[in-house]
């Protein structure tokens, strides 16, 4: 017979697990809602010439792998008996969806740094591989219940929960900073070229002189950092996407802070994990769709003027 203290601990554990279940339901609903409201856009993407390119394939697989994992998870919650095998299937689909989401980040930064050295490209590749390996710890931290219980009990929080969050957060932060640096670099070059052109300096004399910020006001440097001098399409693809990456990074920080808070119960510390994963996937999908729409729009405009289409 269990003591009152043990009984209270069991009740607290059940309440924490139920709270986590409610968050899963909410996150799943948001993910399903996002897929439904953008279904027409997804169908339109499949009609584009580049529908079999790696970014498009990664976009669709990541979204629908997450969707499958949510359906499996909802099935697990409505199953009378706790089935760790079903939880493992959820973890596998979530892992694949997360890796493909990170792969979209990798493809984006690869395009932006396509003219840089192979060393930089190799570094981004290594970062993506490390982040994917870190995310694989989700396959270990699947929920498991003692025997055939009505609900699965979440195991004690250990490094297998923390490592994936740190891996995703670290990778997102690196991509965000790398693209921000490239925005500043490109924008500053335009500011510098405009200022030199206004003084009558010929382009041939500018070679090798780009990048110096000496003698320029803080306002000019801030304008370059924000990408205000970039062409519209370049600014939309680079700068506007950064806002959503920043949201993902902020979500990752909040998730990690809650996860490392040992003063609260284990399941409560996991409340933001499904929210963060869904948010990152939705933000990445939004950036991809907006980029594709802009490229198609400008390509159609250029073709209407008889100009060379924008390369995708």
UniProtKB/TrEMBL annotation:
It comes from the Eukaryota. The chain crosses the membrane at residues 57-77, 89-109, 121-141, 161-184, 243-261, 267-288. Keywords: Membrane, Transmembrane, Transmembrane helix. This is Uncharacterized protein. It comes from Rhodocollybia butyracea.
């Amino acid at each position: 017979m269990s003591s009152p203290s043990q009984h209270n601990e069991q009740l607290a554990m059940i309440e924490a697990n139920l709270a986590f279940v409610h968050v899963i339901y909410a996150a799943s609903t948001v993910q399903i809602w996002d897929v439904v409201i953008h279904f027409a856009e997804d169908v339109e993407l499949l009609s584009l010439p580049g529908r079999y390119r790696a970014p498009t394939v990664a976009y669709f697989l990541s979204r629908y792998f997450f969707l499958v994992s949510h359906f499996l998870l909802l099935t697990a919650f409505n199953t009378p008996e706790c089935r760790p095998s079903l939880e493992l299937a959820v973890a596998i689909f979530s892992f694949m969806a997360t890796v493909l989401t990170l792969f979209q980040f990798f493809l984006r930064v690869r395009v932006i740094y396509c003219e840089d050295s192979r060393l930089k490209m190799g570094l981004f590749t290594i970062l993506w591989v490390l982040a994917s390996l870190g995310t694989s710890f989700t396959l270990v931290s699947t929920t498991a219940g003692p025997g055939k219980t009505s609900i699965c009990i979440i195991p004690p929080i250990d490094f297998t929960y923390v490592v994936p969050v740190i891996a995703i957060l670290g990778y997102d932060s690196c991509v965000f900073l790398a693209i921000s640096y490239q925005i500043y670099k490109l924008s500053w070059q335009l500011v510098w070229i405009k200022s030199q052109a206004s003084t009558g300096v010929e382009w041939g004399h500018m070679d090798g002189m780009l990048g110096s910020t000496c003698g320029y006001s803080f306002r000019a440097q801030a304008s370059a950092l924000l990408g205000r001098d970039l062409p519209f399409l370049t600014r939309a693809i680079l700068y506007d996407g950064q806002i959503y990456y920043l949201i993902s990074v902020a979500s990752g920080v909040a998730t990690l802070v809650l996860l490392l808070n040992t003063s609260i119960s284990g399941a409560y510390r996991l409340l933001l994990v499904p929210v963060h994963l869904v948010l990152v996937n939705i933000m990445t999908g939004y950036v991809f769709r907006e980029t594709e729409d802009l490229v198609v729009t400008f390509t159609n405009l250029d073709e209407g003027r008889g100009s060379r289409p924008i390369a995708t």
